[in-house]
Design a protein that fits this description.
36% of the residues lie in helices and 20% in strands. It starts with a strand and ends with a strand. The chain binds one RNA strand of 87 nucleotides through helix 7, strand 11, strand 15, helix 11 and strand 30.
RNA sequence: GCGAAAGUGGCGGAACUGGUAGACGCGCUGGGUUCAGGACCCAGUGGGGGCAACUCCGUGGGGGUUCGACUCCCCCCUUUCGCACCA
């Protein structure tokens, strides 16, 4: 274990850097002393640092490791800066993989999940993460999910949870319904199976009640990545327009449509209903068109979302034979059913204005419907017969009765008033955002606390009966919801009338679990409410949230909605859950995302086994800035290992600097002076890179430079200079402190070796003197006509005049300027002198 | 199609407010140490020319602003990501 070397004839033994020994040693010590436990303290400034909690698959992969390396470095840095830091970890423990394991391998989902959690926790501990493990939680435990149920009931009282029938997304592979946010490109977000439509009566959360607030508050999230905000904005999809009612000819039925272009109402020449529209059947019932139309409807419903939204396909429709009246003109036009109109947006009915909407134009040309120009292009004269495409720009209103001659944009408000006055339309705002479908036909989730009674209807489970526990007497056959196989669960008496009733067997979307967990960490064992309001008021909101971009809409939008909902229940003052968001980049290898199918996975545990956690962490943070992709490099890891070895040796070989009475660094010697300055400069750079820029890669490279310089200093006999030993000792001391957030085990070990008895994480982060954080002499560049022609040294605070004279006095510069006219001299102190000659 | 981000040595990346392009690391080359390999230490390393001082070219391409552009403006190309009949 000890390597014998001979240095200068004196036998010397230097211990070797052995992460395998020092890492467990410090992990045990941190745990036994409770170093990272956090307690509310109104006297101290709090900082809540949080990583997206993982689904406990049992495998901790490089993406996780990167996530935690970033968060832990930041949390440790903030602690040393004096903040009262909350840094917890938990497990998003409900979900399909556990249930699938139950089906295929006959294991209990609870057991499967708990053992996966233990495996992940084991690797997390091994990484040396500074979590307050006392606050850990798992969403599959009744102590947690009972509060999902509680919140559900409160939301229900507030009208934020309700049940309705609707055509919903169904994943045939996962055998459950999905929320709109969970359908990506027509496929299931989890397994990518093509999603089908099903008519079901399901539970929803009324996220649309907060559509405007969710949109407006994005503006205030200054420290969120722009692209996440844009994605949320597009998802909410607010558009201003009008709702217009049309009377069906020969009937009392009204059809309501949403449009962003009420100014084109005079140009309506037909109307289209979505296949799912509730009026379709009613309209054609008993007519000779009934058979053909209903066949078309069935065919459209059969198609998957992908087929229906394929833009390359021609729009197909069918005339219902029925007509409606355009209230603006009094004319009669046909009603079609077409596949390009979807029930999900607006009212599922669209007014057709071929002259001014490209889709309508194509549809009209195909089915021989009239085109009527009502907005005239100011430069060209649009002619209905010759138009090749719709005119979608602004212009002057024509063929529009009292509005003729007015610019369409300007006339819009008046037009809406006109419709309102005449009672057939009104200003309206449309959203793409739909209410959040939360029912899932699966077992491993939170039971929805509802009882169905033939007499009383939907009865909420009384609060005192919570939690509604997941039963264990269930069959995992792979067919249907296992909950429905539990008699003890299903059969219940109605809380109101005591007659036999049955429980809801659907469970909640697991995104509910992750929508409020940051609150729960503030007191995870609290049993009177989801969280202790006083404690949450101290810690919330999360100051720094770190996670993958894949949750840009899903989790982050739901959590924002929940926070607003909880606020309106009077449980918190927070409007937003996450003040700052960092979306980390992917970890890739050989140009592709690390995945089992690619065979390019680097196992986290193996990494740590070989090099230790500190090396893995330093490499991950050094190789790339956090929000960018990280290209894995085995050789790069070697480099980080070598660096930590160098730091270890630098300290261990110079312990004598710390054993004697500490010598103060003095600036008497030129070498000492520059080392002192470099130390201050490095402290400044590392502090700012972590704090302001979140750039751990440049912070670490600055530490490397300092280490290189200390080595050169010692090798070049710098210790013999006046104050040399002091300057070296202080530089080494700073190095250990600066590296602590990145390589915490090594830092503790070296801190102890240099004579300290308390954890380095109880130590203040080093400070710097701004005056000393600049070099004594800076290199100046002299440019002649934009090209670097000479260099000279000068103190950084030299005046412009002196710098200019010095530059012009350089022989080479004199040579070049001789006989030429000096047009201009630009002097940037500390940088350059730029001379323009002719 | 629309929107966003990004293109810098052999590689990962730096250059923060327009001011020495390539910090730091990897790799590579030469040397030292070693029985040897590894590890370690020293030196070099964008391309071309030159013995050298030095010089020309160089941040996806083209133009522009400026004493000065990786950085700002315009056009184009490529890549990645997101959205995609949104009425």
């Amino acid at each position: 274990m000890f390597l014998m070397t001979l240095a200068g004839g004196i036998p010397m033994s230097t211990p070797r850097y052995s992460p395998r020994e020092i890492e467990p040693k410090w992990q045990d010590l941190w745990e036994s002393t409770g170093l990272y436990r956090s307690v509310e303290d109104p006297e101290r400034e709090k900082f809540y640092c949080l990583e997206m909690f993982p689904y406990p698959s049992g495998d901790l992969h490089m993406g996780h490791m990167r996530n935690y390396a970033i968060g832990d470095a930041y949390a440790r840095f903030l602690r040393m800066k004096g903040f009262n830091v909350l840094y917890p970890m938990g497990y998003d423990a409900f979900g399909l993989p556990a249930e699938n394991a139950a089906i295929t391998r006959k294991v209990d989902p609870g057991q499967w999940t708990r053992s996966s959690i233990e495996r992940m926790k084991h690797v997390q501990r091994r990484m040396g993460l500074s979590y307050d493990w006392n606050r850990t939680l798992a969403t599959c435990e009744p102590e947690y999910y009972r509060w999902n149920q509680w919140i559900f009931l409160k939301f229900m009282e507030k009208g934020l949870a309700y049940r309705k029938s609707a055509p919903v997304n169904w994943c045939p592979s996962c055998q459950t319904v999905l929320a709109n946010e969970q359908v990506e490109g027509g496929g299931c977000w989890r397994c990518h199976t093509t999603v089908l439509k099903k008519d079901l009566k399901q539970w929803f959360f009324k996220i649309t009640a907060y559509a405007d607030e969710l949109l407006e508050d994005l503006e205030r999230l200054d420290d969120w990545p722009e692209r996440v905000k844009v994605m949320q904005k597009n998802w909410i999809g607010r558009s201003v327009g009008a709702e217009i009612d049309f009377k069906v000819t020969g009937s009392d039925q009204m059809i309501s449509t949403f449009t962003t272009r009420p100014d084109t109402v005079f140009g309506i020449t037909y109307m289209v209903l979505a296949a799912e529209h509730s009026l379709v059947e009613l309209l054609v019932h008993g007519t000779d068109r009934a058979e053909a139309v209903m066949a078309f409807v069935e065919e459209a419903k059969e198609k998957t979302l992908i087929e229906r939204t394929d833009e390359t396909l021609e729009k197909k429709g069918i005339d219902t034979g029925r007509t409606f009246v355009n209230p603006a003109t009094g004319e009669e036009f046909p009603i079609y059913v077409a596949d390009y109109v979807v029930m999900e947006y607006g009212t599922g009915a669209v007014m057709g204005v071929p002259a001014h909407d490209q889709r309508d134009f194509e549809f009209a040309r195909k089915y021989g419907l009239p085109v009527r120009v009502v907005i005239q292009d100011p430069t060209l004269s649009l002619r209905e017969e010759t138009m090749a495409e719709a005119y979608v720009e602004d212009g002057t209103m024509v063929n529009s009765g009292p509005f003729d001659g007015r610019p369409n944009r300007e006339a819009m408000p008046d037009f809406i008033n006109y419709m309102e006055d005449n009672g057939w339309g009104r200003g309206a705002v449309g959203y793409r955002l739909r209410d959040w479908l939360i029912s899932r036909q699966r077992y491993w989730g939170t039971p929805i606390p509802i009882i169905y009674c033939d007499r009383c209807g939907e009865v909420p489970v009384p609060e005192e009966d919570l939690p509604v526990l997941l039963p264990t007497d269930v069959q995992f056959s792979g067919e249907g919801n296992p909950l429905a196989t539990s008699k003890t669960f299903l059969e219940v008496s109605c809380p109101v009338c005591r007659e036999p009733a049955r429980r809801e067997t659907d469970t909640m979307d697991t995104f509910i679990d992750s929508s409020w967990y940051p609150f729960r960490y503030t007191d995870p064992s609290y049993d009177k409410a989801p969280f202790d309001q006083a404690k949450a008021a101290y810690w919330m909101p999360v100051d720094q949230y770190i996670g993958g971009i894949e949750h840009a809409i899903l989790h982050l939008l739901y959590a924002r909605f929940f926070t607003k909902g909880l606020r309106d229940l009077g449980l918190t003052d927070a409007d937003e859950p996450f003040r700052r968001l960092l979306t980390q980049g992917m970890v890739i290898k050989d140009g592709a995302k690390m995945s089992k199918s690619m065979g390019n996975v680097v196992p986290a545990e193996e990494m740590m086994e070989r090099y230790g956690a500190d090396t893995a962490r330093v490499f991950i943070l050094f190789a790339s800035p956090p929000e960018k992709e990280l290209e894995w490099s085995d050789q790069g890891v070697e480099g980080s290992y070598r660096f930590l070895n160098r730091v270890f040796r630098l300290v261990m070989e110079n312990l004598s600097l710390f054993s004697a009475e500490p010598e103060r660094a003095v600036e008497d010697d030129e070498n000492s002076r520059s080392l002192i300055r470099l130390r201050h400069k490095t402290v400044k750079k590392v502090s700012e890179d972590i704090e302001r820029r979140f750039q751990f890669n440049t912070a670490i490279s600055a530490i490397m430079e300092l280490v290189n310089e200390i080595q050169r200093f010692i090798a070049g006999n710098g210790l013999n200079g006046a104050g040399g030993a002091g300057a070296a000792a202080e530089a080494i001391r700073a190095t250990i402190l600066l590296i602590a957030p990145f390589a915490p085990h090594l830092a503790e070990e070296l801190w102890e070796a240099t004579g300290h008895h308390k954890s380095i994480f109880l130590q203040q982060w080093p400070t710097f003197d701004p005056e000393l954080a600049v070099s004594e002499m800076v290199q100046m560049v002299v440019q002649v006509n934009g090209k670097v022609r000479a260099r000279f040294e000068a103190p950084p605070d030299t005046t412009r005049e002196v710098l200019q004279d010095a530059a012009l006095a350089i022989p080479r510069v004199r040579e070049m300027t001789e006989g030429k006219e000096v047009l201009k001299v630009v002097v940037v102190p500390g940088r350059l002198v730029s001379i323009v000659i002719r």
